[in-house]
Amino acid sequence: MTQPVATTLGTEHTQNKQTIEIGSHSRGFHLYNTLFGAAGLILALCIVITWFPQNIWHLPIESSDSAAHYYFIHKLGSEGWKSVTSLWPNGDFYPPLFHIFAYTLQQLCAVFGLSLSVFASFNIVWILTSGFIFPLGMLMWCNYFMRNLRSAALHRNPLTWFYRLLLLTIPVLSVSSASHPFGMLTNGPLIAFGLGTSLLPLGLYFTLRLFDALSARTPSFINTGARLIELLAVGCLLLLSHPRIAFSFALLIATFMVFRLPRKIAIIGVGTILAGASAYIALVLLTETSSRLGDPASWFHSHRPSKTLWQAIWTILSDAMDTPASICFALLFVVCAISALMLSASGKDKANNIALLMNVTFLSMVYVATVVATGAWANLISAPWYRDENRIIAMLPLVTVPVIAAGFDAMTAAIAAHDHQAPDAYKHEGNVVPDHHPTRNLNSQDVRVRPVPHSVALVVVSAILLVTVCGGAQINAASRNSLSSRIDESANLNKADLTEQLTNEKYQVLQDVVRQTGTESAIVSDPMNGSMYAGTMFGANVLYPIMNAKSTRNGAIFTEAQQSFASGDPEKLIRTFCSITPQHHAYFLTLGPQAQSLQSFPFRAQYDVFHDRQLISHYLDTGALQLTKNYGDITGDNQDSILYKVNCS
User: Deepest of 36, 525, 628, 647, by most Cβ within 10 A of its Cβ?
Assistant: First the structure.
């Protein structure tokens, strides 16, 4: 029977009205979510900026690796893009992404007539990548596991506010632990690996998007291709930041391959990881010449355990936070872990949550092997990360925070299912809805039943714990603050030990040395006395801009300079030193003994020859060296710091 025109028009009017309401609500939903997420990112950035040490805006971080990173940026500024694949002083490759970012920032400032120092560009890039890119990646990575929360919010469910709370707190939670990114700047500093860790959440997120495309019931070639291009782009950034980040990526993605992908694709993926590991082992066997290579128990022979088993486990459970936030986080983590495992429906959600919990287990195993255990197996497990606990513990937020998100999502799914409002994502994105379930043939708006009070109480208590953790971690941040203080102390010129890398006296001497020599003439000196910073601070052309300059490839001059000085032959010394910059002068500088803070460098003895007083006197008597300026005993070790000019004429 034909419907009356009035009835048809009325039905169409109602449908159009509902469509307009849904569209309006959807726009408002996305706007509010964006605002909450943006607020969380701003808070995270503020936490990092507030933590950041103040002294290093005009002085270097005095540690074993910092001089190299400053030099790499300085080299890009001096030689341009042609040096991007040869950052080492000898021309070897070093992962350049962080330094490219810093150099690009300098170039952008130059366009507007601004001059940005090496230290300032270094700091700004670190702050942006650690305080914004990392929390953003964590937000995207964790948001992947909150599909039920997103859908509940779209249905105007009160659970919307729990979702927005997570959008606000996840970025904050990501930078509330001392494990990352703060530890990377303090220890080493591990700049390149730290950048890779900060980019890692993005790599994991885009990988799971590719897994979604590959495991779809009707895979789309266009969609799969787009997801693959996304992953390749992020993968290139990860490898350019530090190739060894691939081990961290493999550790965290392998379980998702097993549980999420179709069997054939999963086998290919796991096989690729194993093939890559085998290739790496073969490379090590071919390139390393150590006699201990065949005996894993003798690797890392100087390594000593730093924690007990309980301390290591508590570090994982508490996300390396300080009390009382650590206790609240441990409680929240356990609740969310159990919820993610027990309350999630079979299908994609269950697979994701099992993979997340296995990642926690695997990271715990590697961490315990590093900080507690000794022997061959412990060395083999932690070798990809140089048995360095700082590199390993940096992955902690990447495995703990997603469990929090997944736990909240599972609680939401349980409440929505009991409320006869199973979200569309819950019903259609790989989760199994039983035939007898009331949501199978009903719209979520058709039936409303009051949810289980215990489930609501659980999610409310979890939300309170989450807010408490985020606030408490900022109120008592002793561990984070101690890392900042250590950096500020190292970059302080007012040191009690005058032989340290840089002091007020050494700073003034190096400044005057460059006035004497200019920025083109070569300056030869033991880099471990602090002279290696003269290049980045004052533009000096020091032969050894880092303490571990390699003698391979274009680095033969580094060994030749040491050998010629040790020979006692004035003509050989003159010939070698003057060949460094043939069109300019060459100088030799004494600046006191090697700094105590660098004594862990295993090859420090190569520079002992530059401290031989008898040789210096011999070259002075023969005229090979000419005294330019005596700065006196500025290090308190009864040795004058003197600048000599090599008699190149």
Answer: 525
Report residue 177 as tokens.
């632990």
Angle at 520 between CA 514 and CA 522, to 5 degrees: 80
Q: Which two tokens stand for residue 246?
A: 């691939």
pTM: 0.89
Q: Are 231 and 225 in contact (CB under 8 A)?
A: no
Quickly state the pLDDT bin for 5 (edges 50, 70, 90). very low
**What count of Cα atoms within 13 Å lies in the side-chain half-sphere of residue 349?**
31
Three-point CA angle 200, 107, 244, nearest 5°: 25
Tokens at 440, concatenated? 């199978």
Q: Cα dist. 435→4, 411, 439, 441 in Å?
A: 37, 22, 9, 9
Separation of CA 472 from chain center: 24
When pLDDT is averaged across residues 142-166 and rounded to a whole number, the result is 81
**What's the gap between Cα 514 and its chain centre?**
35
Number of Cβ within 10 Å of residue 147's Cβ equals: 22
- The DSSP letter of residue 430 is S
Distance CA 246, CA 253 (A): 10
pLDDT tens-digit series, residues 366-375: 999 999 988 8
Instruction: Report whether 197 contacts 181 (CB < 8 A).
Output: yes
3-state secondary structure 19-56: HHHHHHHHHHHHHHHHHHHHHHHHHHHHHHHHHCCCHH
Distance of CA 102 to the CA centre of its chain: 16
Residue 377 CA to chain centroid, in angstroms? Answer: 26
Q: Output 155 or 209, whichever has higher pLDDT.
A: 209
Nearest Cα to Cα of residue 195 among 80, 324, 100, 323: 100
Supply 376's token pair.
């061959």
Q: What is the DSSP string of 314-380?
A: HHHHTTTPPTTHHHHHHHHHHHHHHHHHHTSPTTHHHHHHHHHHHHHHHHHHHHHHHHT--SHHHHH
Whether 521 and 587 have beta carbons less than 8 Å apart is answered as: yes
φ/ψ of residue 628, rounded to 5: -100, -45
